[in-house]
Structures are given as structure tokens and as C-alpha cells.
Amino acid sequence: VGQNLVTIKEVDSTNTFLKNLLSNSKPLPEGTVIMAESQYAGRGQQQNKWHSEPGKNLTFSILLTPGFLPVINQFDLNRVVSLGVFDALEPYLGSKLKIKWPNDIYYDDRKLGGILIETHILSGHIKHAIIGIGLNINQESFDAGAGNAISLKQILHKDYDLRTILSEICAHIEAHYLSLKAGRFLAVREVYLSRLYWLNQQKYFRSNDQVFEGIIRNVKDEGLLVVENNNEQQEFSLKQIEFLN
Ligand code: BTN
């Protein structure tokens, strides 16, 4: 991952750019990375926009071709990618670093980065996965609309070289991806769970306009979040549940 690296100054979204490249040109090598200094239409999960100050942060997309992965196991890709980002950042940030289900990167209660995975499915298997990663690195402040965003610089009061962190992330994603490819999905699932934000803690959530107190107990193989509420386990998709702070 990252051997074939293309950097662009400005683009709508690296995910969109990579998707267009795939449909217009000859096949690209697996592990190709498209990195942009700035995106003017960065996209997040659930139709959100992704804002990032030009030149300050990491915004990039990785091409994976996990033909070995059945669609029902697609969530293992989310696990592998979030673990790769986690492992790259852990030496900088230590134990306050967490993965917020399904694949946000959190430091304490603040969002350091996010992941947007878009797949192209062919006969029940994943032909292409475009792995979009946005990480706040050297940005010094965020406007109120950015919610609970935080950057590495705001935590550690230093500037970081984007290329260095990019290559660390690529190496760690590759390691977890290869372990998935080798069939070690149980290990991937177990480590992912152990890194989870709010795991086994009594917290407030909202679902269907109802606030309730619950405890995250698990993530199903296919990616649903399992929350215990009054000794009963309920499963949620991303659209169905909101974490309340
Ligand atoms: C989220 O937290 O909702 C996911 C954010 C993903 C942002 C990255 S930045 C690089 C890539 N290109 C995009 O347009 N989005 C992803």
C-alpha cells in the first residue's frame, strides 16, 4: 500500500477522483494512493461533508481489490483500515486513542479523523474498495460547525510531516489487510473490538428519537453495533443510533 502514490494539489474528492480513474483508464495497481493537498467537495459518511484546511491535513484514498472478501464480510475492511490508522497514531497518542464505531478515529471525546469506504461489488465479492481517509494533523483551529473535531497539533503542539504519517498508516493498513487475506479474521475482529470507544461503559444513546442508557457490548461480524439496554441486547446500524455525550 502506497508504493504507487499520486499527489494532487486540488481535487473535488480523492474518493471521487479514484473512482473516475478506475472507470476511465486501465487498471491501477492494488495499493495505489491518491493524496490531495486540498479537496473542495470532500465527502464523509451519511452524506456529510468533510472539511479540511488546505495543505494542513491528510486527505487521501487507497485502492484495494479484495476479491477474496465476500460482501457479507465487508465490515472486516472497515476494521482493517481503522486498525491501521489506529496503530500508526498510537505511538503519538497512546491510550486515549480509540476507534469510534464504525470507523471514526477518536482522541478522548474528540474526532481526529474519519474513514469513508466505497465498494464496487461483482458477483457477491468486492471487486474494488476505495478507502478514503481524512485525518486532522496540523490544523490549528476548527470552526463551530466542525463539531468535536481536533487535530494532532492541537493535542501535541507540534507540526507533523504529512508524508511520514501517510507512509506509517499505509504500512499498518497493509499489515492488517494481509492478515485478513491470510484468513485471520477472528484476530482482526478481536483487536478491533478491544480498541472501541465506549466499550463496556454505561453511556447515553439516541435511537428513533428516544434517549436511552446502554452499554456497547459487541460489534456483529457484519458490522452492527450491539448495545445492552436493560439486560437486553439490541443491534443497530449507523443510521439507527447516535452517541450522546
Ligand atoms: C467521515 O468521518 O464521515 C468520513 C470522512 C472521510 C474523509 C476522507 S478525506 C479523503 C477521502 N475523500 C473524501 O471525499 N472523503 C474521504
From TrEMBL:
UniProtKB keywords: Ligase
Any one Pfam family match given in the protein's UniProt record, by short name: BPL_LplA_LipB
Domain BPL/LPL catalytic: 1-181
GO terms assigned for molecular function: biotin--[biotin carboxyl-carrier protein] ligase activity
Top-level EC class as recorded in UniProt: ligase
EC numbers on record: 6.3.4.15
PROSITE patterns: BPL_LPL_CATALYTIC
Protein name per Swiss-Prot or TrEMBL: Biotin--[acetyl-CoA-carboxylase] ligase
Organism: Mucilaginibacter sabulilitoris
